Amino acid sequence: MATPLRQTIQVGKYVVGQQLRRTERYPLVLMLEPLLQCNLECAGCGKIQHPTDILRRRLTPQQCWEAVEECGAPVVAIAGGEPLIHKDIVEIANGFTERKKFVYLCTNAILLERKLQDFEPNPYLTFSVHVDGYEQDHDDSVCRDGIWDVAIRAIEAAKERGFRVTTNSTFFLGAQPDRIRMMFDKLMEIGVDGLMISPGYPYEKAPDQEHFLARNQTKELFRDILNDPPRHWKFNHSELFLDFLKGEIEYDCTPWGNPTYTVFGWQRPCYLMDEGYAESWQELIDETEWENYGVASGNPKCVDCMVHSGYEASAVIDATTNIKAGLRSFVGSIR
After folding, report:
1. How far apart, in Å, do the first and last CA atoms of the chain sit?
2. Which of 128, 194, 272, 281 qualifies as a cystine partner to 201, CB 3.0-4.6 A?
3. What value does the mean pLDDT of the chain take?
4. Residue 277, Cβ neighbours under 10 Å: how many?
């Protein structure tokens, strides 16, 4: 099982508690963007297309901590942009782990090896390294040669120092399942603790608009990728989410499960769409017209989306509140 037992138990207790209180909408993962600036310009990303004055903005550590206290999520994914650019990133991460929040610090790894000396291994801290393909495939995805080698060296260095490391891979039209499987084998070989996978979302501002997957293409791709997976592959996902990617189970989106707090405030309805911002968590929950989002809504922006930020929470809630689904998830995690 790739997800730490401590995290599985803590998140499970949290979900059951919310269900017992009959809370209709609650967060599982706070998607925190303390900055939007990045040191890469990936063709499939719409985050760094903002004006320079926006890219220079930073959330303070206090703003970051207040966001998780406000919403109460047990897990925080620190994204961006590139979080390691933020001068206070160590303080921010330490503040979350001191609050017993599980932190996934997402990074392209360009700065990771140099920054490792500033962090201490902690059971609540995971470095989540973006790896979007095998060798040159990854370099092509991030639009810069040599980044695959940088990421692999950084992962190896982090593991040598005792850190928990997962990878986060986003796949687009044209991805080759056999090469992705080779990538998984390589990442397992160098000690990655868990693989995280997702299809790309068609950001309106992304430079490349030709390689986003339609829903049927996503299912076909992930069926091929996950066909008869070797036992040594470890995924940092619910088994149910993997079934969802393959089209073997259907969920509707729960965008409130992974809310985003950014330099603009609370983003509506999720970090993938630019539908305005709320000043508080409660305003986000109470005043967002949630029925207008998700594939069941018919919203054309949602029709092809199968991204983990919308559907992983759906799978986790299903596994925690449905006995049959929970058994399926448990059996899959120990295969």
Report:
1. 8
2. 272
3. 91
4. 16
Residue 39, C-beta contacts closer than 8 angstroms, at least 6 positions apart:
82, 85, 108, 110, 111
Q: How confident is the model at residue 274 (pLDDT cuts 50, 70, 90)?
A: confident
The answer to whether the beta carbons of residues 253 and 302 sit under 8 Å apart is yes
CA angle, residues 95, 5, 328, in degrees to nearest 5: 130
Longest Cα–Cα distance in the chain: 51
Q: What is the mean pLDDT of residues 143-169?
A: 97
Q: Which long-range contacts (CB under 8 A, 24 or more apart) does 209-213 make?
A: 210/173, 211/44, 211/172, 211/173, 211/174, 212/44, 212/172, 212/173, 212/304, 213/171, 213/172, 213/173, 213/304
Single out the residue of 184, 181, 312, 177 nearest to residue 245, CA to CA. Answer: 312
| Interacting residues of 308 by C-beta distance below 8 A, sequence separation 6+ | 196, 197, 198, 237, 241, 258
Place of tokens 């590139």: 82
Q: Average pLDDT, stretch 241-253?
A: 94
Residues 6+ apart with CB under 8 A from 40: 82, 108, 110, 142, 143, 144, 147
Task: Report the DSSP beta bridge partners of residue 278.
Answer: 266
Could you tell me which of 257, 259, 261 has the C-alpha nearest to residue 65?
261
At residue 231, the pLDDT reads 93
Q: Which amino acid is at 12?
A: G
C-alpha to C-alpha distance for 58 and 262, rounded to whole angstroms? 9
